[in-house]
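Example 3.2
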Amino acid sequence: MSAAAPTVDTGASAPVKKGKKKLIIIAAVAVLLLLVLGGAGAFFLKKKAAHDADAEDGAAATEHHAAKPDLKHPPTFLPLDPFVVNLADKDADRYAQIGITLEVEDAKFAEQMKAFMPAIRNGILMILAHKSSRELLERSGKEQLSIEILREASRTMGIAVDEIAPVAEKTADADKDPADEDDDPKAKPKAKAKAKAKAAKEPAEPNPIRHVHFSNFIIQ
């Protein structure tokens, strides 16, 4: 009796090949999905960056537009004769040579100011004489000086102006932590009283004296 020939199970390899093919398809789908998600994410990020850039450009354009002077109605500049005054320094003799130009509403008002110029110059000299070189060498000191000159010139012309807080006080208020006011029981009543007084005060008339410009500023 001859030995039976060995049989080969040809169906055993089919599931293996089928399983490998399924794994390859799944891997391909996963890679494709990752590529799609990555591309979509990159697209949205790029779109957001472009939107933010457009927003910044728009804000800058708005700011530039707001700061653009009115070329159809330019202001009138009234230069004053230079001021030379001894300063209030106690340790040394210091003096200042300052050129001042007033920016006013129109030429008509500039002509009106010329009639009051002796009184305006006197008021400015009184302000300068009480300043020290240390004050005027600082930027905040120059800004404070321009505020005081504007206020003095306006009062001389009979123009009511709002009381403007000193530059140093404004800086201190900006640096103040709101949490500190909550801890101070006296801060809130004072703030409320100040706000109430400000609200009750009638608004000042438009000031035809718009700005004070320094054309020369020498301290020796």
